[in-house]
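Researcher: Re-running this chain for the archive, since the previous output was lost when a drive failed. Same request as before.
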Amino acid sequence: MIKVRKFKYQRIAGTAADHCCVPLCQASSRYNSVLSFFSFPADDELRRRWVVAIRRNNFVITHHTRVCSRHFNREDFRDPTSERGRRRLKTGVVPVLFDWNHFSLPPPRPAVWDRRQRPSSEVEGEDFAPDRVLIVSREHDYASAAVGLMLEENHQLRQQVERLTLQQRFGIHRFAASDKDIRFFTRFSSNDLLMRFWALIEPFLPSLGHVQQTQRGHLTDSSTAHSLQPVDELFLFLNYLALGSKQQDLADRYSLQPSTVSWLITSWSSFLYSLLGSVRIWIPEEQVRKSLPAEFKDYPDTTVILDRTELRCQRPSSCVLRSEGFPTDKPRCTVKGLVGIAPHGAVTFISELYAGSIGDEQITRESGILTLLAPGMAVMVDRGFLIDDIIPCKLYRPAFAPAAGVRETQATAHLRVHVERLVRRVKEHKFFDSEIPPCLFGSVSQLYTVACLLTNYENGPLVKARTSKPRSKQRRDLFGRENTTRSHWMMKQPPEWTGEH
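Model: Regenerated structure tokens:
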């Protein structure tokens, strides 16, 4: 015989009344002040559990919807702090007492050990020893052994997933095993050279963080948040220069936002421009003569070879800008830069970019190269580069007349090929292949300078030194300086790049 719990109601005075929304419950505050009425919790998940517990489908909860205290256990309440205080529910409780379960909870399900049949107190005439049974059960705990095997297998699978993810993720570690891929994506001739360059700039990464924090102030945190490692950030920037990739393409490759790609390119360009630009790349005359290749034996006082570099630009809409960047002798808009190379192949001078209409003498004056030249030096230029009137030192140029000085023209032109190869090295960065849009006019000079500076780290000298002397174990760096006291920036080159000069 199931006893039905009855609750007596007593009408009280008052106009406002709360009613319980649980089905089959008629509790109301109008008839009894003993009950408490609680509104639904604000947490969505807890509110959903309340609705499931009271079994109301398509239930619309309002500000006045209440559940009375009859549907909660005694342990669910917090005692009032004062005599006239209200009872409150503890955090996270759910109504569990209803008319359909007769306002009682079923007894808890017994544990597995409790459901098993217990052995009798006597086994073969001896007293039962529970400790021995426990020991046996532990020795035959096959479930624990299976769990251990599953955990070990799970750990191995996680390691395999991490390795596969690393192989599939676009970054430097994916192509580190192939020097051909490294050459294609970065213009560094090998992964070893790229890692040497990374080892040189890695100690200065805190200054990169300062640059990024400064630039992040102009962007939202969501647009700059990413999970790339610093070495992959450098790899992305080198992809931008070497391949001329669009920012949307890089964003898809690296799973980033286009705004994040733009922010990374700007920050790394500023970082390398400041860092590599702080190193004095101009080599003194004495050091140049010590590392002079054998091909320059007829021109032993050559200090630098100068050449102009032109980059194509889109025509700006402004007539003033168009007139400044449109040369009269060429049917396209360009910008010009002046590059200087030492006889053994190192870039020793880089000017800013100027409008394409600038003349040879003007770009030579404004670039600042004249302040570095002295009367005892010699400069080699190509035909058509007319700076004879302003140069303060000797000038070598191929002869214009075929009959006069043919031998000198052939010897000089042979060396001029190396400057053209160097300019080709810079222009191997596909960023400069397409026309530069007007929106990049403010930063193209910085990117151009970084690309020229990176040439010193990406490849070896254009001219290898040849000498009859036996090779010495002492190696020299890219600028011809001995590696015994090398600078923080110039890395040691592989043996096949250098010889005894």
